């Protein structure tokens, strides 16, 4: 849509420029018609005026006005007929003349070019038409709504009080003027001839509305004596008005047309332009929607599918109904997903087997760890013939080896793991009875059956014996406590050894992050790595205890199903 906007603006601008040019041609045409009609009217009536002036010297007219008393009736009749004939020629010389009349007061006769009329003298008309006029600036006289060009002889303006001996007049035809106006008027327009000093209005329609409109134009001064084109508002409707003033005839030619009709052709083009614009917008929207359905929607579905793949959902398949480029792309995507699913399962299985093998290996490292020390203790007690302690020792030793060599589950209830740690502590108490004491808290009832990996507590206690309390001659203490949290359980094992400091603590903490096994504290790293492999989190946290020794916190994360989920799901 944005790409088409500049083209639409250019098209709209071109349409406006074209409309302006067409409108200018329309107005120029109106002005040209107005000037042409006024020039034609001036030329025609100027000829009438000149012929009237030449008519003054007509022999028959002079005889009839000055010598009629000495003329016989036949001579009078012949002169009148010749005069009528020339009046007829005068009438025919103008396309707008209705009649040419000669008034002869001396004979009490009126000679007309129409209908072979030689009639009685009309005194009222004669007196009305003998008014003096400037025939080259304001030639018209109006009598009984009829328009005349008159030539009295002699002219009262020159002769003073002397009465005219004859009057020549040409009546201008309203109907012929209206017909000529009609020829020069555009469709839907109006034209009017308006007298200035003599009040007359001639329109091509000759309706009361036209006369009212022209009167309103006169009242508001919509036109003057200069040729001009302007827009005039009349009763809420805009009109295009062209007026042309003739200083020879003292009248104005008005051409006026409602702007809606004058611009009707332009309005048609504008309407079609708007229709074209609306259709273009609809087509663009339909095209955009089709592009959305054909391209955007399939791409959007494909992107959503890729995001599901990113989330590990490989059991999906997308369908596309058409056999086009997207159909091919969807097919290849489904094939890729199937291959990825196979590869991911293979990788998971390989990782599971590798982790399980590492877990078995780490667990197997503990099995022989305590064996050689136990045999030395048993050897010493047998040599001393300490039969009671031999019985006690071998019982606990049997339970110990039975626990670590059991081929059952890799996880046991926490209570069982703590019982094994107690067994180990009982065995060690025979060796360190005077130096080291081990204190176990009772396992809280809510976590007694919580499943934990086997052999995670005993190696930590063993590390306390071998390293934390190695140099403790008496008063050594190892405490074992428990904390139950919503997300995990903690087993806290703390000794009160004297050799732990901040530097050694940092070394131990760094050792937990090192994949290579250190020469010392193998049990700590063993337990930590097994928990991390099993749960993906948790493990050991090392810090200084309240008694100055090492405090080891074993964190076992809680899982749904009490941690019984298979390793491959983690």
UniProtKB/TrEMBL annotation:
What's a Pfam family this protein contains? HAMP
Sorted UniProt keywords? Cell membrane, Kinase, Membrane, Phosphoprotein, Transferase, Transmembrane, Transmembrane helix
The keyword Transcription regulation is annotated on this UniProt entry: no
Q: Which SUPFAM superfamilies match?
A: ATPase domain of HSP90 chaperone/DNA topoisomerase II/histidine kinase, HAMP domain-like
State a single Gene Ontology molecular function.
Answer: phosphorelay sensor kinase activity
Instruction: Report the locations given in the UniProt record.
Output: Cell membrane
Q: Where are the transmembrane segments?
A: 272-295
Q: Does the keyword Protein transport apply?
A: no
Q: What is its main location?
A: membrane
Q: Where is the HAMP domain?
A: 293-345
Give the record's membrane topology.
Multi-pass membrane protein
Q: Specify the protein name.
A: HAMP domain-containing protein
Question: What organism is listed for this UniProt entry?
Answer: Paenibacillus lycopersici
> Could you read off the lineage of the organism from its UniProt record?
Bacteria, Bacillati, Bacillota, Bacilli, Bacillales
């Amino acid at each position: 849509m944005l790409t088409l906007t500049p083209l639409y603006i250019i098209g709209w601008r071109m349409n406006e420029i074209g409309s302006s040019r067409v409108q200018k041609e329309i107005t120029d045409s109106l002005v040209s018609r107005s000037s042409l009609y006024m020039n034609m009217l001036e030329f025609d009536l100027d000829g009438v005026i000149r012929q009237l002036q030449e008519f003054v010297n007509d022999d028959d007219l002079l005889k009839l006005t000055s010598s009629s008393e000495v003329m016989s009736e036949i001579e009078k009749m012949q002169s009148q007929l010749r005069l009528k004939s020339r009046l007829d020629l005068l009438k025919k010389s103008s396309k707008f003349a209705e009649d040419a009349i000669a008034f002869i007061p001396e004979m009490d006769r009126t000679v007309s070019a129409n209908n072979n009329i030689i009639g009685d003298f009309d005194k009222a008309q004669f007196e009305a038409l003998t008014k003096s006029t400037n025939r080259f600036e304001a030639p018209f006289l109006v009598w009984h709504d009829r328009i005349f060009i008159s030539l009295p002889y002699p002219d009262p303006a020159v002769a003073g009080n002397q009465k005219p001996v004859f009057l020549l007049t040409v009546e201008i035809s309203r109907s012929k003027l209206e017909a000529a106006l009609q020829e020069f008027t555009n469709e839907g327009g109006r034209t009017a001839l308006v007298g200035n000093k003599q009040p007359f209005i001639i329109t091509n329609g000759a309706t009361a509305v036209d006369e009212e409109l022209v009167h309103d134009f006169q009242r508001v001064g919509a036109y003057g004596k200069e040729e001009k084109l302007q827009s005039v508002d009349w009763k809420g409707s805009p009109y295009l008005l062209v007026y042309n003033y003739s200083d020879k005839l003292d009248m104005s030619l008005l051409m006026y047309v409602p702007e809606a009709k004058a611009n009707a052709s332009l309005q048609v083009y504008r309407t079609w332009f708007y229709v074209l614009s609306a259709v273009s917008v609809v087509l663009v929207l339909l095209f955009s929607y089709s592009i959305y359905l054909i391209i955007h929607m399939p791409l959007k579905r494909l992107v959503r599918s890729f995001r599901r793949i990113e989330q590990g959902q490989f059991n999906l398949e997308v369908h596309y109904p058409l056999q086009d480029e997207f159909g091919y792309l969807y097919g290849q995507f489904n094939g890729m997903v199937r291959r990825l699913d196979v590869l991911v399962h293979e990788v998971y299985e390989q990782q599971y087997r590798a982790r399980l093998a590492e877990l078995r290996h780490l667990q197997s490292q503990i099995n022989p760890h305590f064996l050689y020390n136990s045999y030395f203790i048993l050897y010493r007690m047998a040599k001393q013939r300490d039969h009671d302690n031999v019985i006690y020792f071998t019982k606990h030793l049997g339970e110990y080896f039975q626990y670590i060599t059991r081929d059952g589950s890799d996880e046991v209830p926490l209570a069982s793991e703590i019982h094994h740690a107690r067994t180990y502590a009982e065995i060690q108490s025979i060796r360190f009875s005077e130096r080291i004491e081990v204190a176990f808290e009772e396992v809280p009832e809510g976590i007694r059956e919580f499943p934990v990996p086997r052999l995670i507590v005993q190696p930590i206690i063993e590390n306390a014996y071998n390293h934390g309390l190695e140099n403790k001659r008496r008063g050594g203490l190892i405490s074992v406590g428990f904390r139950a949290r919503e997300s995990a359980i903690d087993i806290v094992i703390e000794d009160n050894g004297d050799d732990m400091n901040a530097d050694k603590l940092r070394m131990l903490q760094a050792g937990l992050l090192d994949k290579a096994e250190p020469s010392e504290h193998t049990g700590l790293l063993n337990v930590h790595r097994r928990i991390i492999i099993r749960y993906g989190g948790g493990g050991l946290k090392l810090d200084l205890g309240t008694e100055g020794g090492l405090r080891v916190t074993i964190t076992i994360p809680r899982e749904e199903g009490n941690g019984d989920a298979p390793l491959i799901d983690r």
